[in-house]
């Protein structure tokens, strides 16, 4: 499968990208084609109009549109800011509609505290449903992110290792089932 991992944090000193890159490596190791869309490296301006409606869409939005559209499934990674998901991720998502339609989307939350971004994940999951995508029921919560990875960016927290494996198993299962159904009905 082709999978896009959208990392929704651009803040200095950010930590959530660590789990995004970790998950992408795990999926690569399982022979999936993974493309990381890291909003810290994509110059996506504030939304004026979404894809298909804007007369002169920014190049970054056009490129992201193609990347998301060609993905079979998507993982969204967000830190929790003030009890919600990041504004930069919401801005990016608002550009697109058809790119998410009937796709499997896994949601990952990150926090410095013990709850792993649960509020952000709940709210983001609701947005995923409202954009017509299939939200993976198992969400990945990464608490205490500052201690979850070592200096080599290796995931060392045992609970997060187990949780991320369960999340990836559920993500892959649902994405395979939905994509298999899409291919069967297209034939």
Strand content bin: 15-25%
Second-tier CATH architecture:
3-Layer(aba) Sandwich
Could you list the spans in which at least 5 consecutive residues all have pLDDT below 50? Answer: none
Q: Quick one: how many beta strands?
A: 6
**How many structural domains are formed by the residues?**
1
CATH topology: Rossmann fold
The computed structural class is: alpha/beta
What characterizes the major β-sheet?
Answer: 6 strands, parallel
Q: What is the element string, with H for helices and E for strands?
A: EHEHEHEHEEHH
Spatial gap, N to C terminus:
18 Å
Plain-language structure description:
The protein is α/β, with parallel strands linked by helices and 187 residues long. The chain has a single domain, classed as Rossmann fold (3-Layer(aba) Sandwich), CATH 3.40.50.360. 42% of the residues lie in helices and 17% in strands. It is built from six helices and six strands; from the N terminus they run βαβαβαβαββαα. The protein has helices at residues 17-29, 59-70, 87-94, 118-130, 145-148, 158-186, and strands at 2-7, 33-38, 73-79, 104-110, 134-135, 140-142. Strands 1, 2, 3, 4, 5 and 6 form a six-stranded parallel beta sheet that branches. It is globular and about 45 Å long.
State the main characteristics.
187 residues, alpha/beta, Rossmann fold, six-stranded parallel beta sheet, 6 helices, 17% strand, NAD(P)H-dep_reductase, FMN_Rdtase-like_dom
């Amino acid at each position: 499968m082709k999978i896009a991992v959208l990392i929704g944090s651009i803040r200095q000193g950010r930590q959530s990208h660590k789990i995004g890159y970790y998950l992408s490596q795990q999926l690569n190791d399982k022979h999936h084609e993974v493309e990381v869309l890291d909003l810290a490296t994509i110059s996506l301006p504030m939304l004026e109009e979404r894809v298909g409606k804007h007369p002169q869409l920014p190049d970054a939005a056009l490129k992201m549109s193609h990347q998301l559209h060609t993905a079979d499934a998507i993982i969204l990674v967000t830190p929790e800011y003030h009890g919600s998901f990041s504004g930069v991720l919401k801005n990016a998502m608002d550009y697109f509609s058809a790119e998410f339609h009937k796709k499997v989307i896994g949601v990952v939350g990150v926090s410095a505290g013990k709850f792993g971004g649960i509020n952000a994940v709940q709210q983001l999951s609701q947005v995923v449903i409202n954009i017509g995508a299939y939200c993976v029921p198992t969400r990945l919560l990464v608490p205490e992110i500052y201690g979850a990875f070592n200096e080599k960016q290796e995931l060392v927290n045992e609970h997060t290792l187990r949780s991320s494996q369960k999340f990836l198993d559920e993500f892959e299962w649902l994405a395979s089932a939905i994509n298999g159904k899409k291919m069967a009905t297209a034939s």
